[in-house]
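A favour, since you know our structure tokens better than I do. Would you make up a two-line entry for one protein for me to read? Write everything out right here, beneath this request.
=====
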Amino acid sequence: MSENVKIILEARNETGKEVCGRLRRQGCLPVVVYGPGMKEPLLAKTDAKAAEAYLVGDFKSCQYDVTLPCGTVKTCSIKSAAKNHGTDQLLHIDFYCAE
């Protein structure tokens, strides 16, 4: 059995189109983490180049060990990943934590 991919997230407090665009220009990728064990969705960011590296093949069926900004590690899957179809740039990832 293969090992889960490890992803480290950093906190972000702002939302919106302009904020997410600024994050992408800085080399970060906007991320949302949600699931039944979470009171509300967690807004975060991760390194865009690292994200591109693990989003290959059938990435939606993989499990990821996501380190949240508070230091907690949760096993998640990718619910959705948005890409710009013109440039193939990754725009956003939604992680779903079933725990």
Observations:
- The chain has a mean pLDDT of 89.
- The radius of gyration is 13 Å.
